[in-house]
Amino acid sequence: MSVTPDLECRGINKSFGQFQAVNDVSFSIPAGSFFSILGPSGCGKTSLLRMLAGFSEPDSGEILIKGKSVKGIPPNKRPVNMVFQHLALFPMMNVGDNIAYGLKRRKVSAQEQQRRVADVLERIGLPGIEKKSIDQLSGGQKQRVAIARCLILEPALLLLDEPLGALDLKLREQMKIELKTLQQTFGTTFVYITHDQSEAMVMSDQVAVMNHGRFEQVGSPQTLYYQPETPFVAGFVGNNNRLSGQVIKTAKDFIQVSTESGHIFHTSSSSILETNTAVEMFLRPEAIHIDRDSDKSWQNTMKGRIDNILFDGGNSQLLVRDTASPTQMTVALPQTGKYQKLRQGEIIKLGWNAEQSIAFKAG
Q: Facing residues of 25 across strands?
């Protein structure tokens, strides 16, 4: 027996004049999932979220929540709540009154309000702060209170519109973990909108990568990272070096590409590519091995001069200039101590195998 998804969209379209913001988008989200829509500004993700919330209607297509169409149903009648970037907490109310606001509008008894507020505060890890004013809370605490105010109403969906955008970097990193934990604690389906790939990858069960109003690919963070289906997904999810070239040979498990820099590299491909096809090859910085003194045999090698060392602890990188061309590569710098004495200007050997890069037909 099939299980009804919490959210299903069928052929959603939305235009503003001549501009098509959402173009034939279809997807479904199982109950209890953390689903993110990831894409650059202007890709259509906020327009889609507004239609889910009921703030605007699609020009065509159908939105179903818990198997029921919500066409024509206003926002306040949908089993949906929304957390905005700026939270919209009421500064004149204390924490308890903020969280209970929706219950009060539903005419829930004061005793039941009090019980449910205490319960939700316990579950978000902030017990006993009902009487605190909003301005006494830290940024992270405000974030959790805003989410609690929505979850106390037991919505089918919680929509989150870039809720971490106003936080500083350290707090944003902390809140990514807390949001995922909250979603698992409550079991509510989260639909999360972001342009920040790290947020989407860390928190989500499934991610839809959106571009020019369409979903380019939907999959787990691991699938998007290791098996991108389009050049846009390869370039947008994670970091990548991009090399242009032409297919000169095809084999069962790889192709050979002659790059504009004059190298011949073995690479995997996204589809069957014929010889002489122009391609773009993507190679992640962390897939490249720094081979100073190893005799290990790699399918692909390149010598380069270290232009710059960008030290950032576990996120450190090298900028390496090909000795045979102007091509510059970004290479992850492992913090094992082995490479501690690398210096700017040093010549190093880089190595990787075919399966660690992927080529797409250019254009």
A: 12
Q: How many CB atoms lie within 10 A of CB 41?
A: 7
Distance, CA of 323 to CA of 303 (rounded, Å): 6
Burial of 169 per CB tally in 10 Å (0-12, 13-18, 19+): exposed
Polymer length in residues for the chain: 363
Q: Which amino acid is at 109?
A: S
What does the block give as tokens for 341? Answer: 């004495």
Which residue has tokens 């660690």?
Answer: 356
Taking the domains of the chain in order of start, what are their residue ranges?
7-235, 239-361
d(CA 172, CA 177): 9
pLDDT by residue, tens only, the chain of 363 residues: 568 899 999 999 999 999 999 999 999 999 999 999 999 999 999 999 999 999 999 999 999 999 999 999 999 899 999 888 777 789 999 999 999 999 999 999 999 999 999 999 998 889 999 999 999 998 888 888 988 999 999 999 999 998 887 778 888 888 888 889 989 988 999 999 999 999 999 999 999 999 999 999 999 999 999 999 999 999 999 899 999 999 999 988 899 999 988 899 999 998 888 999 999 999 999 999 998 666 678 899 999 999 999 998 888 999 999 998 999 999 999 888 888 889 999 999 999 999 999 999 997
Which CATH superfamily does the domain covering 7-235 fall into?
A: P-loop containing nucleotide triphosphate hydrolases (3.40.50.300)
- 239-361 fold: OB fold (Dihydrolipoamide Acetyltransferase, E2P) (2.40.50)
CB distance 55 to 82 below 8 Å: no
The Cα 326–Cα 108 span in angstroms is 69
